[in-house]
Specification:
14 strands; nine-stranded mixed sheet; alpha+beta; about 325 residues; four-stranded antiparallel sheet; globular; homodimer
Chain lengths: ~325, ~325
């Protein structure tokens, strides 16, 4: 018997998403939300739901995670991902990992099969080998669009300025972090985030996504779950995910906590971004201070989604 | 003209410090506190003070940071460090970095010379080369004691159980994270943390220390600064540093915030550790739930320090 109404919230990145990939972004988050919700409706765990949702987003080349990840300064893909179980507070993350298709699955293996929370670089790949995670040809993760973007942006600085502060329709393709938060029928909350980072980033640069509690990902059943996106370094400075959780712990509602935290990030460190959230009472929330963010929510057999600030579409799920 | 009374707090790690290194641990934190306080008294910045203090602790082989870092499962040293400026909220960190003497200095270079907050593994070492940081022979950082400890602990799990939960006098030598928090004459707060991690850790394992805001290090002038130590994975789960800051932001005094947060970590995830803190009003605080923690405070020309739960020594500084 279900004690709680399951709910899932998805994001596909907060940034100036260009028009030519807006529909693909909408479709990607809808697909991920449907998949996660189906798992929850069949009694699956919040952890299984967020992992499955993020796998779909990693496999979809329109998002900057897994296939379609941005290239770093050396023209290589290094990916970050994290997952957290709000019941045990167990967390797993990988950073600067290469040559695997689904970093979120490796992050879950770190959580469940090691005594650690975060493995990086070669060490993360060594662990992947131990777990028999198939190594893939790096070129299979590189899309034509990411390669063009990398060639366009010679300097990381210009990438940050352009992508987070302006919508550039002339850009070949875009990107950003993906994430999912879910509450299952038993009231358990989980959150997951995955990213390829920012085009032209330094080799070994780690953004916010694998930093449990800083920003990327935080989940604690008693309060709620959060996944963030946007300019990683700004999110780190303000500890966005934990900040949202702290406000909710003090009694603030999820929507207000998300909005207030993103406004603080904007005023204190001039950083733009977005976040999704589910409170312990099952209230879903999202907000973004970038031009656009692809989002989707599934609850009570209804799917809602959007991309532009005031856009909200609704359809019944069967 | 000085507007604020400078203050600095140092820790040399919270764990079951064995008797044979207790005096060296006390002396190390005292030396670091004196050095940082001298800088502050001469009008130096909080950032300069915490960096200089941590350099002293990294150079002292009795602490698990820089020279004297624990060896990982492969018998190698991989170090983590982070620093944060409470005025700008700029932060810099390195993780799983090898072959350099003072990771805290490289963390500061990440903060000041890149657009990123965290560089890991080979990428961190590439950046060190760019900055002309001298590469050192890894064996110069390995102490006989750490080598013996590595040989003793074949499994990471047993290391965690033994070191954080029991005092084992038969251990050849000990270790743990070091850290410093300072407020300068202009009321600016900075925090820094550095560690070699846990003996037998997996290659690429990153603990709490480089995770700004999670635990290792957080500083924001309006509220305070924190540096944490203890079992990194527990600290990550609870987001210890940011948790302390959140409690202080809600009006709690520094000492109560530190104690309450460590108690929460103990009850929620059964993790032991310690933390040091300075509030925006200049109140220093520290607490630990492990058997011992080496700590030192310098304020108003008085140096205080201790190691055991009720130990507090005081001397006038000239």
């Amino acid at each position: 018997m279900n004690k709680v109404e399951p709910v899932v919230v998805i994001h596909g990145g907060a940034w100036a998403i260009p028009e030519n990939i807006s529909d693909a972004s909408r479709n990607g988050v809808k697909l991920a939300a449907r998949k996660a919700y189906e798992i929850l409706k069949h009694g699956g765990s919040a952890l299984d739901a967020v992992e499955a949702a993020v796998v779909i987003l990693e496999d979809e080349p329109v998002f900057d995670a897994g296939k379609g990840s941005c290239l770093n300064a050396a023209g290589l893909i290094e990916m970050d991902a994290s997952i957290m179980d709000g019941t045990s507070l167990k967390a797993g993350a990988v950073a600067a990992v290469a040559n695997i298709s689904n970093p979120i699955c490796l992050a879950r293996m770190v959580m469940e099969q090691t005594d650690h929370c975060l493995l990086v670089g070669e060490g993360a790949n060594m662990f992947a080998n131990e777990c028999n995670v198939p190594s893939v040809d790096p070129s299979s993760l590189v899309t034509e669009a990411c390669l063009e973007e990398w060639q366009t942006f010679e300097k990381y600085k210009s990438a940050v300025d352009s992508l987070f502060n302006n919508q550039i329709n002339s850009l070949p393709l875009g990107h950003d972090t993906v994430g999912a938060v879910a509450m299952d029928a038993n009231g358990r909350i989980a959150a997951a985030t995955s990213t390829g980072g920012i085009t032209g980033k330094r080799v070994g640069r780690v953004g916010d996504s694998p930093l449990i509690g800083n920003v990327g990902t935080y989940a604690i059943d008693e309060i709620g779950g959060v996944s963030c996106t946007g300019h990683g370094e700004s999110i780190i400075k303000i500890c966005l995910a934990k900040h949202i959780i702290c406000l909710m712990e003090s009694g603030m509602r999820a929507q207000e906590a998300v909005e207030q935290s993103l406004q603080l990030m904007n005023s204190r460190v001039k950083g733009a971004g977005g976040a999704i959230c589910i409170s312990a009472s099952g209230e879903p929330a999202f907000h973004f201070t970038t031009e656009r963010m692809a989002w989707a929510i599934a609850k009570a057999d209804v799917l809602s989604w959007g991309l532009d600030p005031n856009e909200s579409n609704v359809e019944k799920m069967v």
